[in-house]
Write a sequence for this structure.
């Protein structure tokens, strides 16, 4: 005899889809359990009628990737959020990319490296990468390549590669867009994109200069700074906006 709850969780996991398991841990309907898909629709089990707002709360928690216990007037409910493995798309097979891919893999990211130079995009240089793509932007990706679970990092300084990327990634729902460059380069990029017709809210999505200021000196340290900003965007949605790598202690 199969378990509908376990079967639903297995299906979501195997299909790499977002979902949530909700369990009433106290109060009315204690012990009730249900599995919801990414839209907040119950696909297994049941939620007590008195907890009608649970589905709405589950959808909000899935968007924030938060597993928490929430209190209701007559019950307490635990939400276990199921999140697809995030993907990191790195453009530019430079030294920082090597470090970034290595560390991102340890944090559970599926990593993709793209560059038009075959000699740079090799398994020897990127042993930890899940996928290597050789080619120009239009050859290695399209708008369907980037969803809400995708993080995009542009490390190339070559405008021939960078500029064709923006029409693809800026309108996309990608979770994070970061681009390497100094403050001067970032300002010039912003002016260029606005003059090209991109909307201000689209250009404002670009994190540049990329990363959190932790005083990075080496390629590995810069990769850590970029990952820190990505993690902040993933869980805090960019708040606070003035992250400077300050210690957590008061």
């Amino acid at each position: 005899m199969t378990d509908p709850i376990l079967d639903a969780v297995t299906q979501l996991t195997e299909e790499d889809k977002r979902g949530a398991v909700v369990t009433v841990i106290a109060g009315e309907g204690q012990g009730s359990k249900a599995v919801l898909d990414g839209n907040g629709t119950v696909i297994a089990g049941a939620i007590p009628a008195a907890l009608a707002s649970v589905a709405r709360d589950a959808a909000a928690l899935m968007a924030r990737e938060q597993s928490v216990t929430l209190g209701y007037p007559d019950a307490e409910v635990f939400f276990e959020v199921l999140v697809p493995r995030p993907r990191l798309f790195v453009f530019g097979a430079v030294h920082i990319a090597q470090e970034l891919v290595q560390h991102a893999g340890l944090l559970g990211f599926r990593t993709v490296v793209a560059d038009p130079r075959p000699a740079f995009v090799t398994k020897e240089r990127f042993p930890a990468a899940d996928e290597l793509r050789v080619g120009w932007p239009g050859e290695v990706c399209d708008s369907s390549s980037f969803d809400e679970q995708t993080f995009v990092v542009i490390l190339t300084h070559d405008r021939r590669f960078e500029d064709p990327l923006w029409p693809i990634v800026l309108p996309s729902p990608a979770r994070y867009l970061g681009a390497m460059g100094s403050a001067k380069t970032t300002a010039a990029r912003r002016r260029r994109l606005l003059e090209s017709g991109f909307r201000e809210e689209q250009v404002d999505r670009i994190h540049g200069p990329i990363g959190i200021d932790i005083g990075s000196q080496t390629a590995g340290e810069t990769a850590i700074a970029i990952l820190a900003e990505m993690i902040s965007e993933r869980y805090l949605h960019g708040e606070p906006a003035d992250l400077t790598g300050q210690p957590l202690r008061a």
In short: The longest helix spans residues 219-236.
